[in-house]
Specification:
With 228 residues, this protein is α/β, with parallel strands linked by helices. It has a domain at 2-85 and 156-224: Rossmann fold (3-Layer(aba) Sandwich), CATH 3.40.50. Helix content is 47%, strand content 15%. It has 9 helices and 6 strands; from the N terminus they run βαβααβαααβααββα. The protein has helices at 24-39, 53-63, 70-75, 88-99, 108-123, 135-152, 165-176, 180-189, 214-219, and strands at 2-8, 46-49, 78-79, 158-163, 195-201, 204-212. It has a 6-stranded mixed beta sheet. Strand 5 (195-201) and strand 6 (204-212) form a beta hairpin. Helix 4 (88-99) crosses helix 5, helix 6 (135-152) crosses helix 7 and helix 7 (165-176) crosses helix 8 (180-189).
Length: 228
C-alpha cells in the first residue's frame, strides 16, 4: 500500500506580529524530524506542502537534514494552496465580537476554551457570512486536495505532506467519521511536527497512526514537544 505522511508545521511565532513564520524552536523541530527520517531510512517519493510560510520553512528545515536521494525529491516538491490552514485569527476575532468580549485571555486553559468555542461557532454553518472562509468551503478544499493525492499515487509510494493542524484534523475527521466538535478538539491536540500516517490503495484509505512524535523521543529532548 502507498502511504501519505501528514506533517504539522514546526512551532510558529505565536503572540508575535507575524504568526506565519517558524520560531527558533520550530526550525529545531523540523531539523530533528529530518534527522529522524534519515536515521530510520524512511522513504520519500514525493513532497507536497501548503503555501504558507510556516509550511515552506518546515520543509526547508526538514530537507536540510535528509540524506540523498530523499533530499533530491524536495527540489521537485509541489505547493498546493488547498492545504493552507483556515484563518484562525479571523475565527477568533469573529467569535470575540459575537460574544462582546474586549480581549481574549491567552492563558493556556482559557485560550483552549475560547478556541474550541470559536471553532464550534464557525463549524455550525449558521454564521457563514461572518467569516473570510466558511467551514464548508475549508473542508471541501482540504478533502479535494486529499483525494487528488490519494487517487493519483502509484502503489508503494510514500508521499510527505506539510500542512497545518486544521487540515490534518479535517482529513482525520473524514477518515474516522468524527463530529465537527471532535475535529476541533483533535486540531487543538496535534503536536508541532507530529506525523500522521494514512495508508491507501485505489478506492481505499485508512488512518494508520495519529499525532506520532517518535522523533522527539528519538532525540531525547522533551523541549521539542510543543503544541502552540
Amino acid at each position: 500500500m502507498a502511504q501519505l505522511l501528514l506533517i504539522r508545521h514546526g512551532q510558529a511565532s505565536f503572540g508575535s506580529d507575524d504568526y506565519d513564520r517558524l520560531s527558533t524552536l520550530g526550525f529545531a523541530q523540523a531539523g530533528t524530524l529530518g534527522r529522524w527520517f534519515s536515521a530510520c531510512a524512511l522513504p520519500v517519493d514525493r513532497v507536497v506542502s501548503g503555501s504558507m510560510r510556516r509550511h515552506r520553512e518546515t520543509v526547508e528545515g526538514w530537507a536540510r537534514q535528509l540524506l540523498e536521494p530523499a533530499s533530491d525529491v524536495v527540489v521537485a516538491s509541489t505547493v498546493d494552496e488547498r492545504f493552507d490552514e483556515f484563518d484562525h485569527e479571523d475565527v477568533l476575532t469573529v467569535y470575540q465580537r459575537a460574544i462582546g468580549a474586549a480581549d481574549i485571555d491567552t492563558t493556556p486553559a482559557a485560550l483552549q476554551r475560547t478556541f474550541l468555542s470559536a471553532v464550534t461557532r464557525w463549524t455550525s454553518g449558521e454564521h457563514d457570512a461572518d467569516y473570510i472562509e466558511s467551514w464548508r468551503h475549508f473542508r471541501e478544499r482540504c478533502l479535494d486536495g486529499f483525494a487528488s493525492i490519494t487517487d493519483d499515487a502509484q502503489p508503494a509510494k510514500s508521499i510527505v505532506l506539510f500542512t497545518s493542524g486544521g487540515v490534518i484534523a479535517t482529513i482525520c475527521q473524514h477518515l474516522m467519521n468524527l463530529t465537527d466538535e471532535a475535529m476541533g478538539r483533535l486540531n487543538w491536540s496535534l503536536a508541532n511536527t507530529s506525523v500522521t500516517r494514512v495508508r491507501f490503495t485505489r478506492g481505499r484509505r485508512s488512518l494508520d497512526s495519529l499525532n506520532c512524535t517518535a522523533h522527539v523521543d528519538w532525540a531525547r529532548d522533551p523541549a521539542l514537544l510543543t503544541y502552540r
